[in-house]
């Protein structure tokens, strides 16, 4: 079994690529989605967040994500500390998930694959990239963020250049969804040829 890491900056299209991979029949572990779920499930993480930010960080036992984001994306240390407690839990969750898979390739989609160091446990890593202005426009449209909010989140991620230097494969997403599906298919073909 080969583990393929998928990352990309906010607005790059990494989640859409991951969905195309799922539709092609491959298992994909969505680390960011699971991290959000784990922050609602893990008593250890709940206790940490309540201690750090007060009981208002949870509303009816559900994480107040917008409040948490407003705190951690403004303070680097807060984000770093949050990642230190959440990422080991996500890593263990992925390991459990992986044992249930039977395919030749399993994919792990994570926004901070490189920043967290989890790329080291993959056999191959791909970054989905797009021009910065296009990424900003996409996130503003999708999330109803201001330009400043998008730039704030981008500042907490590696730059495109850093990701590209670390990645084994770069998948460009400057075109349409049809174009993206095509380049995703080419990537899957590349992988199957690489190990067969």
Which structural class is indicated by helix and strand composition?
Answer: alpha/beta
If strands are numbered along the chain, what order do they take across the biggest sheet? 2-5-1-6-7
Gross morphology: globular
Number of separate strands: 7
Instruction: State the order of secondary-structure elements, H for helix, E for strand.
Output: EHEHHEEHHEEHHHEH
Gyration radius (Cα, Å) is: 17 Å
Terminal Cα separation, in Å? 12 Å
Arithmetic mean of pLDDT: 90
Helix content: 55-70%
- pLDDT < 50 stretches: none
Query: Biggest sheet, open or closed, and with what strands and sense?
Result: 5 strands, parallel
Query: What proportion of the residues form beta strands (DSSP E)?
Result: 5-15%
Number of helices: 9
Summarize the structure.
By secondary structure, the protein is α/β, with parallel strands linked by helices. Helices cover 56% and strands 15% of the residues. The chain contains nine helices and seven strands, in the order βαβααββααββαααβα.
How would you describe this structure to a colleague?
The chain has 196 residues and is α/β, with parallel strands linked by helices. The protein contains nine helices and seven strands; from the N terminus they run βαβααββααββαααβα. It has a five-stranded parallel sheet, sandwiched between helices. It has a two-stranded antiparallel sheet with strand order 3-4. Strand 3 and strand 4 form a beta hairpin. The longest helix has 24 residues. The protein starts with a strand and ends with a helix.
């Amino acid at each position: 079994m080969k583990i393929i890491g998928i990352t990309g900056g906010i607005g790059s299209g990494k989640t859409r690529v991951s969905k195309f991979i799922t539709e092609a029949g491959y298992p994909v572990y969505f680390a960011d989605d699971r991290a959000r779920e784990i922050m609602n499930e893990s008593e250890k993480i709940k206790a940490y967040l309540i201690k750090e930010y007060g009981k208002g960080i949870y509303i009816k036992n559900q994480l107040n994500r917008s409040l948490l984001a407003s705190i951690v994306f403004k303070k680097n240390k807060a984000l770093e500390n949050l990642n230190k407690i959440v990422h080991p839990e996500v890593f263990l969750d992925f390991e459990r998930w992986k044992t249930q898979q039977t395919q030749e390739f399993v994919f792990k989609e994570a926004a901070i694959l490189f920043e967290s160091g989890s790329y080291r446990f993959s056999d191959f890593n791909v970054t989905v990239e797009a021009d910065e202005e296009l990424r900003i426009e996409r996130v503003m449209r999708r999330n109803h963020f201001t330009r400043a909010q998008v730039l704030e989140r981008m500042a907490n991620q590696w730059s495109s250049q850093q990701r590209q230097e670390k990645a084994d494969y770069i998948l460009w997403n400057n075109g349409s969804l049809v174009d993206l599906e095509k380049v995703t298919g080419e990537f899957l073909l590349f992988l199957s040829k690489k190990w067969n």
